[in-house]
Structures are given as structure tokens and as C-alpha cells.
Automatic annotation (TrEMBL):
One of its GO terms (cellular component) is endoplasmic reticulum membrane. It comes from Rattus norvegicus. Residues 351-370 have a biased composition (Basic and acidic residues). The gene is Hm13. SMART domains: PSN (SM00730). Signal peptide: none annotated. PANTHER family: MINOR HISTOCOMPATIBILITY ANTIGEN H13, SIGNAL PEPTIDE PEPTIDASE. It comes from the Eukaryota. InterPro entries: Peptidase_A22B_SPP, Preselin/SPP. Residues 9-25 have a biased composition (Polar residues). The keyword Hydrolase applies. It is a multi-pass membrane protein. This is MCTS family member 2.
Amino acid sequence: MDSALSDPHNGSSEAGTPANGTTRPPSTPEGIALAYGSLLLMALLPIFFGALRSVRCARGKSSSDMPETITSRDAARFPIIASCTLLGLYLFFKLFSQEYINLLLSMYFFVLGILALSHTISPFMNKFFPANFPNRQYQLLFTQGSGENKEEIINYEFDTKDLVCLGLSSVVGVWYLLRKHWIANNLFGLAFSLNGVELLHLNNVSTGCILLGGLFIYDIFWVFGTNVMVTVAKSFEAPIKLVFPQDLLEKGLEADNFAMLGLGDIVIPGNCWDLKKNTHTYFYTSFAAYIFGLGLTIFIMHIFKHAQPALLYLVPACIGFPVLVALVKGEVAEMFSYEESNPKDPAAVTESKEESTEASASKRLEKKEK
């Protein structure tokens, strides 16, 4: 999991000096501003639209589309799992051929990227299909056993429109696989980020604080304490980061001096905002906090010329800003005690219905008394 904001040069051993020993021209202030402004914009898009789609999904209450809920135990274990994964990748790159590892990873993310991008563009593409489009329904079903012991392994329903979206996404996938172009990388990265914000879900603020707190320590240790994070980010040829060239104005689409932002710095804060859906104040406050935190990361990195753990600045901002607003509004206890019920949980649904019935009975009783 890459979670550092940095501006390393592809294939370089140190900033400004490519691996072949030739000196790379320094980036212009305009190019740097364009690169980091674009990274900030690309980070905001999946957070905003992913949160909107998550809310619509929750309102639809379709059990097959409901987001997976992250528990407090999952949040506490996540930094440990991420650390083991990161260290494992680092050791693999040190012990084995980088070429073969990246080939396997490219094939893996090729499949995942196509599926994620297809799911992302499907709602937008539906608006462009004509009303008389011949849309047929399909079902992919794999079962195990027979008779009463038959068990469904895969049960996926799709239609002709989904197949068109899958075809378009496959074109991007082939482009990425053959060229590793930064635009194709970003299309997959944005799709992964939006799906991560939409499909993963935290149902209370405390879980979000545990997750952010653990990753706060994780990010600082692996960026400042070792060279593991930056090494993996440079070696890992997979769309797990958003990139934008700082020399785009000089070289156009063939530019190769990239600034990068790990997807973890988008998905994790984005999921922690998907709370208190009935109140927009905290979402917009956290949205402003993210802009502030990422902007501060870029500023510090530009001053010290060193890759920065973005969560070092994002976590205090994304927790501190909403808590400050809650203090002003006198809602701190309410904010931390708030827990959104899971529509997939029958107990939660029953409890919600009972509460609704009690409220209706109470209103009728008040009317009779009047």
C-alpha cells in the first residue's frame, strides 16, 4: 500500500539524475504547480463522487450492492496487514527480478482495473444509450454440489450495457498493459479510489479514528524511518498511485518526470467521511480539511525536497476540523456516539421498524390528548 506523496523521477537513483547518468532539466514552477494542482483535483473527484454513490447505494438498500462495513477490529488490524504487505513487496523486489514481479502484478491489476473501471463508468454510460437500445439480461452462475447441498459460488447479473462498458474498459486495460501510459494508470487509479470509497464503509466515527490513527503511525514509520515506502513506490509498476508529469508543458503527453500520490491517501480519508449522512456540515468540513492537509503536504515536500507521508498532515486535519466544528456546535458526544445501522443487518432493520412504530404511536397519543 503506497501512502506517500512524492516527486521521484521514474527510473532515477536520486532527484534530477536519471539512472543513465544524464542530468534531467529541472521542472519549471508552472509545471510543478500544474502537477500538484492536478493531483489534488484527481484526489477530490473519487472522494466526492464515491461518497455520493455510497449514499445512493445505502438509500437503495440493495443487499447485493451494500457497502462492506469495517469494524473496529478490522481498523486496528489494517495497519499491521498493510505493513506486512509493504515489507513483503520490498523483499520481493530485493530478492527477485523486478521485471517478472511487475509482469505478474500488471496482469493482476489489468483484470482488477478493467472490472473497477467498468463499474465506475457504468452509471455515466447509461445516460448515453438510446431508449431503443436492445438491452438483454444475463446471469453468470457457478454452483458447487447438487440437490439440497448445492451452494452458489458466483451469482452475478449483468446486461448488454454492462458488456459495452466492459469492452471500453478493456481498451484502456490493453493500453495500460502495452504502454504503461500515465493517463491509463490514472484512469485505473481513479476507478480503484472511487470504488474503494463507495464499497467500503465505516459505520461510526470511533472506527474511523482508530483506522486513521494506526495509518498515521504506519505512514510516518515507513516513509521517515526506512526507505521501504519510497522504494516500493518507485519499483511497483501498478496503478496503486495517481501520477502527473511535472514536465507536461515541455514534453506533452510523453512527459516522464512524475509527481505521485498513493491511493491510500484518498481511499482512507474518503471512507472516514462517509458518516453522519443526514448532516452535510461534517462532510464539507472534512472535505475542506482534506484540501488543507494535502495542500500542506505539497508545501512541506516542496520546501524540504523530500517525499512526505501525506497522512502525517491529513489525519490531524481530517480529525481535528470536524471535532472543532462539533465543539462549536456542542455535538462532540453525539458525533462519537453516532452509529449508522446496517440495512443488511436484520436486527438493525427490526429495531428501526420498532422505533418508527413507537414514534408513530407516540404522535397519535399526543393528538388524542390535544
